Amino acid sequence: MDIIRKAVLLGMGVISLAKDKAEEMVDDLIKRGEIASTERFRTVDTLLKEADKQEKELQRKIAGTVQKVVADMGLPTRKDLEEIMETLKKDRI
């Protein structure tokens, strides 16, 4: 499994990993004798799941960073604007 993690993190250097690229990487590992050909499907599946996990984690971190920047700049959030709109609507009635 360590070889797979290194391949994803270091070799690819990419968050989203296409199935064909994962298969190509696994085929190369099989040719080099680092994994058994019987493990091909499971290894490709593991690579794709790891890439998906990393992509979701990156998206979570980016969203958190954006929220922090917005808050630090003192900009209103969508929720803040919706509350203001509700208050204005109530004041008109």
**Average residue pLDDT:** 81
Rough shape?
rod-shaped
Provide the gyration radius in Å. 23 Å
Backbone structural class: mainly alpha
State the total count of DSSP E strands.
0
Provide the fold topology.
Elements: H1 2-12, H2 19-31, H3 40-73, H4 78-92
Written overview of the protein:
Helices cover 78% and strands 0% of the residues. The longest helix is centred in the middle third of the chain and has 34 residues, at 40-73. It has 93 residues and is mostly helical.
Which short descriptors sum up this protein?
single chain, 93 residues, rod-shaped, mainly alpha
Please provide a brief summary of the model.
With 93 residues, the protein is an all-alpha fold. 78% of the residues lie in helices and 0% in strands.
